[in-house]
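quick one, 144 residues, struct below
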Amino acid sequence: MSSPAIMALLLALSAACGGHTFYLERQPTLTFQTMGSAHVWRDNDGRYRLEVDVYRLPSPQLVFQGGCADFVVWAREQKGTTRNLGNLSLYGNGDDALTGVLKSRLPEPQCEIFITAEPTTTVTTPSREPLLSVRLKSGREPGP
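---
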């Protein structure tokens, strides 16, 4: 099954579970054919959850010619605070066909989500330009 077909299937399944799905926008400087989505929903306890799925990722070491070991997912809240939500768990073979997944709590439902290549997963501020990003906003709150 091709990457676009897999992504369409996953988006359809996630939409069936409630919440909202947003497509990540690839930065114009990124030469890789990476694509992804962010799915936001409220769990039964009323907390916001996020799942980020990215396909056709290059190895982090290839993005900036070395110096990067991981892809980190960030949330920039409306008040300007930027939080490290964690790193993408990478799966697959090869240097340009990796799949990355992150599941995390989301500080608020309307924020900017972006992904950077970083030297470590413990960085507290983004050190590079975002590779992929999306602004999460909707006319209604995500449901359970």
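Confidence is low (pLDDT under 50) at residues 6-16.
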